[in-house]
Amino acid sequence: MLERRVEDFINMEKVIEEFEAVTKDAGRVQIETLRKILEDNSEAEYLQNLGLNGRTDPQSFKNCVPLVTHQDLEPYINRMIDGDLSSILTSNPITTMSLSSGTTQGKPKFVPWNDELFETTVQIYKTSFAFRNKEFPITSGKALSFIYSSKQFKTKGGLAAGTATTNLFRNSRYIQQMQALKSQCCSPEEVIFGPDFHQSLYCHLLCGLIFCDEVQLVSSTFAHSIVHAFRTFEQLWEDLVADIRDGVLTDSVTVPSLRNAMSKILKPDPDLANIIKTKIMGLSNWYGLIPELFPNAKYVYGIMTGSMEPYLKKLRHYAGELPLLTSDYGSSEGWIATNVNPTLPPESALYTVLPQIGYFEFIPQNNGDSSFIGVDPEPVGLTQVKIGEEYEIVITTPAGLYRYRLGDVVKVMGFYNSTPQLKFIRRSNLLLTINIDKNTEKDLQLAVEEASKLLAEEKLEVVDYTSYVDVSKDPGHYVIIWEISGEASEEVLGECCNCLDKSFVDAGYTSSRKVNGIGALELRVVRRGTFQKILEHYIGLGSAVSQFKTPRCVGSNNTKVLQILNENVVNKCISSAFNN
Ligand code: AMP
């Protein structure tokens, strides 16, 4: 009965037909979308002050409305946070705020959330599901989803606040939608909303094991949480198996709501406990853990591009032969694009812009053209972007952000009908730079991958990494920080350090290194668990594990993260790669 209702809920052919229609007419759909956003919000003080006088066409919009960053909007957002319920950015006052993860900037930012954003989320989820399910059909079953709510609180002025994913999970229609997408979480709500993520993670794993034959997919918002979960599984599996055998939840889960919810599903099951134990004993170095535990899982799902790429190797190890499918592309501020090519591996994933969920502009990147320094080129519209070019995305959303610079750089790889397909390139402000050098988080990732091959020979791996530039002494130099799975010898670390230094192939870097305009690269190794402390620091600021992204280049203003890193250094070495 429930299954029939679920089937009726989403008509996949219709979703694909609608997608085809809007993408064939992306230019017109964009004009319509802008018109609707501006008409719906014509009462907003922000728009009224800009003299649009009822005009809703793209040219008037461009002429009257400035490009803004979050900082420019802070005075408006702060008034809302303080309880001003007038029409500030939107006609209908904003009553909920999302807290963006802020892992790249160092501190979380408040951005408006409303029902229209929920609707765009539903559209994006339905679209990618319709395409995904054509290639990798899932039947009725459950999802082992490592999702966590953040702390929920009221702002000074009484607005509800939490991360965007928390606002999503809290929407009464969320569970219904997830059922329709056959992605209902196997853990009870109390686990998602639990106040302690270690305990929630334990219960997610336990629920996964209890429902192991029903699990059809393993997912999280960002891939980091999946890797983190199975690393934790490696540590705690014996406790989990004991709980299943005895039907008694470990004492280390202390939150009453979690204990209560788990008591309803945990029953003594020695047979299952034995099966799980036997499966684990049969694994070699945890390879293929996910399909072994969840034999009916069809794929592993979550955002796997951008700052998540460094986790792919480990994720593939756990996933064995199961396909890894990257999900959609969006932010707390609004959604952008969906994955309608699920068979592509995450490294070559394409995100197709949905032209009806927001109004999009693209600022061409100067990519080394010095005549552009200090001047930003004019943004172009969605259908005017060029294949092969990189752009910074500017979004206009139904939640009160107009011509908002998101800070992401993407590359146009092609078009689906008339809407662009994007590759995520980087956060625009994440750069290692001292003078004429410019290394992005991708350059850093490639250098780390290269150097970690030397560790692999010692059966060691880089668990996580970050970097910063140290300009406290002249010349400044790059500091790369690694957490390693075991202890590496001084000799191997020295080789890794040299390899890192040599692997930054940017001409500005190598030429500066040769003349000592940039000092020798330093590799620091931090204690096991240091990156966990960074994650906990962000959670303390109101972020959620679900949205956590390790900051790959730490800015000098991010003092707390720098402090955590510096306090935990156990070894360091200096490159001699450019010594004559
Ligand atoms: P948040 O601050 O938690 O709202 O995270 C939003 C940011 O996460 C985006 O601006 C991107 O930088 C990054 N992001 C989101 N989706 C993807 C994706 N599919 N691939 C790469 N990066 C992503």
TrEMBL record:
- Alphabetical UniProt keywords: Ligase
- Protein origin, superkingdom: Eukaryota
Q: Residue ranges of the GH3 middle domain?
A: 351-427
Q: Kindly indicate where the leader peptide sits in this chain.
A: none
Concerning InterPro entries, the annotation shows: GH3, GH3_C, GH3_M
Membrane-spanning residues where?
none
Could you tell me which Pfam families the record lists for this protein? GH3 (PF03321), GH3_C (PF23572), GH3_M (PF23571)
Q: Which residues form the GH3 C-terminal domain?
A: 442-557
Family of this protein:
Belongs to the IAA-amido conjugating enzyme family.
**UniProt-recorded name of the protein:** Jasmonoyl--L-amino acid synthetase jar6
Taxonomic source organism: Stylosanthes scabra
The uppermost taxa in this organism's lineage are:
Eukaryota, Viridiplantae, Streptophyta, Embryophyta, Tracheophyta
